[in-house]
What we know:
Elements: E1 2-6, H1 7-17, E2 32-40, E3 43-51, E4 55-61, E5 64-68, E6 70-75, H2 76-85, E7 91-97, E8 100-104, E9 109-113, H3 126-131, E10 140-145, H4 146-157, E11 171-177, E12 180-186, E13 190-197, E14 208-213, H5 214-223, E15 230-235, E16 239-244, E17 253-258, E18 277-282, H6 283-293, E19 304-309, E20 314-321, E21 325-332, E22 335-337, E23 341-345, H7 347-354, E24 361-366, E25 373-376, E26 381-385
Antiparallel strand pairs: 1-5, 1-7, 2-3, 2-6, 3-4, 4-17, 7-8, 8-9, 10-15, 11-12, 11-14, 12-13, 13-26, 15-16, 16-17, 18-22, 18-24, 19-20, 19-23, 20-21, 24-25, 25-26
Helix pairs in contact: 1-2, 4-5, 6-7
Amino acid sequence: MKVIVDRGALLDGINLVSGAVASRTPKPQLTCVKITATKQGGAGELTLAATDAEVALKLSLSKVDVQTPGEVLIPADKLRQIVSAEENEPTLTLESEGEAVHIRGVDAHFKVFGYPATDFPPIPDFASAVSGSGSSKAKAVMTHPAGSLSELVSRTLFATARENSRYAINGVLIKRDGKRLEFVATDGRRLALARANLAAAEKDAKAVSCIVPSKALVMLQKLIQEHEENVQIAITDNQILFSFGTPASPGRAVLVSNLVEGAFPPYEDVIPRDNDKKVTFDRDVVTSAVRRAALLTNEESRGVRMAFKGKARSLELSSRAPEMGEANVKVDLAGYDGEDLEIGFNPTFLVEALKVLTEPQVILELKATNKPGLIKSGNDFLYVVMPVNLQ
């Protein structure tokens, strides 16, 4: 293999695929990036691939002069360090010699030892998953704009559990039913639900759902460049595949992830239906107030008290921490329908939800001091948050 490649494009690609490289593994091949150089009709293409056996990513680079096709498998960390250090070079030459790779700039030459490219585990092919010619046939295939997909991820990913023994809530539930697409996440103390309509879908398509690991969705967001670009999604029995291209052509990137095993909690049961107090407020105003009130909280007193006054249409936020002090912040509300109420919430849970919203006006529905609150934004976002006890 011998290629001349744009250094900046190569570094961007390496940084992206490095997200799929295993950090700790007895298999050194999983700490590597597989580089494949191909040439068709005079046009050269360089493919970078990495996997940790749970998530896999394959990227295609077109800014490349392929002089000799071939493939190599080399450690990702050294490759990234070398390409990053050669910052004054517009292009780099990569040439294989057995299992080693020579990386050359104008005034530098690096030789990096790698492994046989055949040792790298195969990454599922998107077209094969759709057609069923691969290991398993997709039970659902859909197309959705990248921008909307990114928003669905942003509005739910923050609410996933971290290092919870219930693995099913360590990811995001993706549910497709006809033209409706839902993303749901929970950590047991809050729940975020975001919806969108699929641009092109069968109205009565069979319902399908799966749980996608958080790591895969973080990587998916990093791959999104153009909001209008369509992303093909295929769901098999144990994997989900995202392709930035068309079913016939994998395009510039294919992300594959194993699915999280287990049953997602019956989330619809925890969405309050009988909240009788309705608060309407400005997102930025209340976000600022919650952040300021949270300045005088600590591990023991993690909650912020929120006192809603119907007649004054106002909200008073307060907090106190022993040996630290007290905070008190007052804001006006756009609207309040219901009796006065005092309730406590974890300020982090409120701020994380409010900062992913795009609409300036937000609705909060409440029932009682010990009942969950329900935040709504437009018709496509719900957020359930449990209250905290305040002494």
